[in-house]
Design a protein that fits this description.
Layout (H helix, E strand, L loop, with lengths): L2 E10 L5 E4 L7 E4 L2 H21 L19 E8 H8 L12 H9 L4 H12 L3
Length: 130
């Protein structure tokens, strides 16, 4: 459930550009000077809303089907959001872990100047399919 898709309604703003709303997440609103910036801002706003919900222990709402949305005076755009990618970019606080390995393996790795943190991160990413 890392890649999510939500319908967004893009509205032309009177002063130019677009403002964006998400029918499934009413508190999620943003704007941009042009279509590209509005879309990029929509992805960021959606990410902030979803991760805030997740951290608060709330359920993440399922995105509606496009044919269920009334765009009113706007037009519908499907916004793709990659939860794993967002976490990598915005939630990368390092966490210290203590682990145990055999002494012989430690010595062999140190002789080869292996970065233990990097190896562990790479192995964990592979293990969790990211």
């Amino acid at each position: 459930m890392d890649r999510l898709f939500y319908p967004a309604v893009f509205h032309k703003a009177e002063e130019g550009g677009f403002w964006v709303s998400f029918p499934d997440i009413p508190e999620c609103l943003t704007q941009g000077d042009d279509m590209q910036q509005a879309y990029e801002m929509a992805v960021d706003a959606l990410g902030l809303s979803l991760t805030t919900m997740e951290e608060a222990g709330e359920g993440i709402p399922k995105g509606s089907m496009p044919d269920e949305i009334d765009a009113g005076d706007g037009f519908l755009v499907i916004v793709e959001f990659d939860m794993a990618e967002y976490r990598r970019k915005h939630c990368s606080r390092a966490v210290k872990k203590t682990l145990s390995i055999p002494e012989w393996l430690n010595e062999a790795a140190m002789r080869q100047n292996i970065n233990f943190s990097q190896v562990l991160q790479e192995a964990l990413l592979q293990k969790v399919n990211m």
